[in-house]
Amino acid sequence: MYSLLKTLRIVGFLEGISYILLLGVAVPVKYVLDDPQYVKLLGMPHGLLFVAYIVLALLVGIELKWSVKTIGLVLIASLVPFGTFIADSKYFKPAS
């Protein structure tokens, strides 16, 4: 059975990939080629993954009794490109 932590790791990975694609591909295409199609295509899935990551991070933090500082750092990681990958290696992987 999947634990919340495993689900968070998967969602964090997908959220990180979607964020990199959004910032690295879709936004440049929108402004350089004047084609907003990719932002529309990637924006909604990224938004859903972002919300899922936040909710799961809070639930896992409560379940594993993380400090407020750790929960805050894990949440801030979702705002930084590659942040979810760093959070995974520093906080999620050791807890598995």
From TrEMBL:
The keyword Transmembrane applies. Pfam families: DUF3817 (PF12823). It is found in: Cell membrane. The keyword Cell membrane applies. It comes from the Bacteria. Its main location: membrane. InterPro entries: DUF3817_TM. It is a multi-pass membrane protein. Residues 5-91 form the DUF3817 domain. The chain crosses the membrane at residues 12-33, 45-64, 71-87. Keywords: Cell membrane, Membrane, Transmembrane, Transmembrane helix. PANTHER family: MEMBRANE PROTEIN (PTHR40077:SF1), MEMBRANE PROTEIN-RELATED (PTHR40077). This is DUF3817 domain-containing protein. It comes from Formosa undariae.
